[in-house]
Amino acid sequence: MQTSPSHGRSITGGGPRSDRAKEAKEFDETKAGVKGLVDSGMAKVPRLFIHPPQNLRELSPDTDGPATGLEVPIIDMMGYGDCRRRDVVNDLRRASETWGCFWIINHGIPVDAMERMLEAVKQLHEQPEGVKREWYSRDDAKKFGYYCNKDLFTSKAASWRDTIWFDFSRGVLDPEAVPLLCREPVFEYERHFEKLKTSMSELLSEALGLDSDYLGGIGCMKSKRMSCHYYPICPQPELTVGTINHSDASFLTLLLQNHHGGLQVRHKNQWVDVSPVPGAILANIGDFLQLVSNDKFKSVEHRVLARQAGPRVSVACFLFPGEMQKSKPYGPIKELLDENNPPMYREISFTDYFGYYLSSGNGMNGEAVLPHFRAFDKTKAGVKGLVDSGATKIPRIFIHPPENLPDLSNDTEGTGLQLPIIDLRGYRDSRQGDIIDGVREASREWGIFHIINHGIPLDVMDNMLEGVKKFHEQQVEVKDTAFSE
Ligand SMILES: O=C(O)CCC(=O)C(=O)O
Ligand SMILES: [Fe+2]
Fold first, then answer.
1. CB 3.0 to 4.6 Å from 250: which of 16, 138, 169, 318, for a disulfide?
2. Atom of ligand 1 at shortest distance to CA of 253?
3. Which residues form the Fe2OG dioxygenase domain (predicted)?
């Protein structure tokens, strides 16, 4: 596949004033993705893909091998249907509470079905440019398609990754909707996957201490969507990322990857390499499971590094509520609540959660989305905590009905009216009568007035205000001790 050399130049070139939106549009119109750039012989990462330092922080040097000494837990599901069920459930609980992700082995999906799936995805991405061009789209109504960066036009920087998707969320996916080349492997994988999904739903229910059919009963994993990523070799991996740090909005994500590593998860504030384990599937707890489990299970922050090795191929299968359940409110599961475990989140539908997730950059701007839905009072961090957490939108509980809101279009400065100011100097002697008259008048007309020369020294007032400001600006942990409901 070739991208025309002139096109390549226009993307890499551009002086400091050239416009990102224009670069994104030009690149998008090639419909050839990152793979097209690499195939055109591009030796430098185009500016569109260069991330600001805060996105690249801590990318190296621990990119090879588990320098941290930490490793994602591996859970052997062998015998989960009978003799080992209790062990498997306990292992799942521990891993979901501490890591928010874990490998599963002996999960029932044949290794060759997984390999065929990965190979089919690789082949799809490696189709000639002219073939892939027909699939290029960001239209969510389509069941199959291909794009480079869903958020290409809204993100701060693009990521070194192309994606093909299969959407199984609205009923059964019609085989005719996907290219013949991948039909058999995709539907074979999906058939096995459905069985694993049912088992995971039962085991995770039990791991939460609920009946095994609980999560199935609330329909929270009914739908699925497969995002099949292709990460081409990157000539300057220190300048960009494969996938920026984020947690998934889903309930659960089950991930296949080929032998090229690059995936990392955040654990105990360190990035830990998720080195491929042959035949294993990676399970990631998503935000929505953290929400319904009332923080018992943790959604895991993860990212994919851009690398000089590749191409890396992965299949992330996101599980989330079905069509019938998507718009119904979900909140912390009642059975998990008691006086020591108050609800940490307010109720919200998956549709609303996901809408917010997308509008705040697919969770891909490095800012966690879930905290926005915490039951506000439980944070004990106040409005200041919201602002400090980088909230860019006002949470719904703060939004007032129109009748409460001042008419901001009216310029109040233009009225010429001013609050009365009453000078208290001499109120014990010569001016007492005037002052009393002034107070009476202001109380009758306004109900509010300023007083000056009141006897409280200015520095005492300033110190008081400064003290209050300092209190509010303390760490949340310090203020926590003074918080009272
Ligand atoms: O490619 C991967 O391994 C991870 C992809 C991912 O995190 C996602 O699609 O949400
Ligand atoms: Fe993800």
1. 318
2. 10
3. 222-321
Give the CATH number of domain 30-398; options: 1.20.1300.10, 3.30.420.10, 2.40.10.270, 2.60.120.330: 2.60.120.330
For ligand 1, the distance from its centroid to the CA atom of residue 199, given in whole angstroms, is: 22
Is pLDDT at 95 greater than 70 in this prediction?
yes
Task: Report whether residue 250 contacts ligand 1, using a CB cutoff of 6 Å.
Answer: no
DSSP-derived pairing of the beta strands 162-167 and 144-147? antiparallel
What's the mean per-residue pLDDT of the chain? Answer: 89
Domain coordinates in residue numbering, the chain: 30-398, 418-482
Atom 2 in ligand 1: residue holding the nearest Cα: 314
248 CB less than 6 Å from ligand 1? yes
More confident residue, 403 or 469: 469
H or E segment and range at residue 165: strand 162-167
At 135-146, the pLDDT tens digits run 999 998 999 999
- CA–CA separation, 421 and 199 (whole Å): 74
Q: How far is ligand 2, taken at its centre, from the CA of residue 382, in Å?
A: 30
ipTM: 0.99
Distance 245 CA to ligand 1 centre (A): 10
Distance CA 160, CA 35 (A): 9
pTM of the model as a whole: 0.78
